[in-house]
Amino acid sequence: MTSIRPPAVALRRWLDDAATRRRTVFALVLAAVVVAATILWLVCTMWPLDLEIYRSGARALAQGDDVYGPLPPTRTGLILPFIYPPFAAVVFLVFAAMPLPLGAMVMLAVSLACLCGTVYVVVRPRTERRTALLAALLIGAGSLAFEPVRETLWFGQINLLLMALVVLDCLGPRTRLPRGVLLGLAAAMKITPAGFLLFFLLKKDFRAAVTTVVTFLLAGVAGFVVAPEASTKYWFGGGLTGASGMSGSIFATNQTIQGAVHRFGLPDTPTLILVAVLTLAALALTIPAMLRADPPMAFLLNAAAILVCSPISWSHHWVWIVPAIVLFAGRAHTRLAVAGLAAVAAIFVIAPHSWLPKNGYLELSWGPVEHVVGNSYLLLALGFLGWQFYSTRRQTAAV
């Protein structure tokens, strides 16, 4: 097995070369061209459906209407509900005050900044500031090729913002801001990030866990103060389960255990049993592996578990592939490891599920090969959980 220098080391030595300035300028220009081309493509084709829903929910709040009732149709005629907590509607008021095109550009700029910021936080502990900044720009530009990132930007989603908040809180350097505040705010905007509370608990950072819960509750109280009726409806009147009709959606873009099982078209009882067994199995792999892993790897395990065990993880929710690729690139010491990492990256660029028969319940007609190809994100994540479970156990036993 051939050993090679990790990418972080190679990049650092490259920067120290005599031709650093010329190569750096070229790389930055190339990154700028990639970003500019992406922005141009997005401006010409962007369908900020999710941003429209955010704005509609915020406008309903500002006008005293029912945030969780029927909202105005989108530009394409779709009528979709606002399913986020009231605190999120308060945050989205800034977009409600803007024309949609301007709001879309602001969301795009924020998302790109969060993407590069996430890469910087992951890379910085392994290298000096200059190298980390350059890596953040270059890898951030390259990450635009990943389907989850493309779709997030295209829909005007907040996935990259939430990811940046969580990554900075869990993996970033200590600052005056108590650890747990950013995670609490992310969870207050969208419940799913609350799953990262497991990271703090298993690492015995109980202060951060308590801070997360307190921040989440305070944000909820703020939501009650600003929007008492909406808050009551969301937390106590069924609003919290507003997306329940989509749980376990058979759509190919729902890359979760529930989605995969539902695509088999089995009766309800076997489906529920199979989902429960597979979900518990995923957690049984995740928790021991997290206890044995170092913090960055434990964090990725937590992210993978949240994605596969959630009722819905649309393909654009899988932006966590970016910090995963960055972390593994820094640990890829053999050509085989680099080849495997490249193969995984290629899958998230190609998005195999998008090439199969889908929508209109066509997923129920999939054959065995299509089920494997169509659940590629899910299967890779489950494979990652299993691999880390056994590899961390082997490493622990060898100590």
UniProtKB/TrEMBL annotation:
InterPro entries assigned to the protein according to its UniProt record, in alphabetical order: GT87
Gene Ontology CC, one term: plasma membrane
Main location as per UniProt: membrane
Membrane topology classification: Multi-pass membrane protein
Entry's Gene Ontology molecular function annotations: hexosyltransferase activity
Organism superkingdom: Bacteria
Entry-linked Pfam families: GT87 (PF09594)
Compartments in which it is found: Cell membrane
Stretches that traverse the bilayer: 25-49, 104-123, 130-146, 152-168, 180-202, 208-227, 272-291, 303-329, 336-356, 372-390
Keywords: Cell membrane, Membrane, Transferase, Transmembrane, Transmembrane helix
Family the entry assigns: Belongs to the glycosyltransferase 87 family.
Protein name (Swiss-Prot/TrEMBL): DUF2029 domain-containing protein
Source organism phylogeny: Bacteria, Bacillati, Actinomycetota, Actinomycetes, Pseudonocardiales
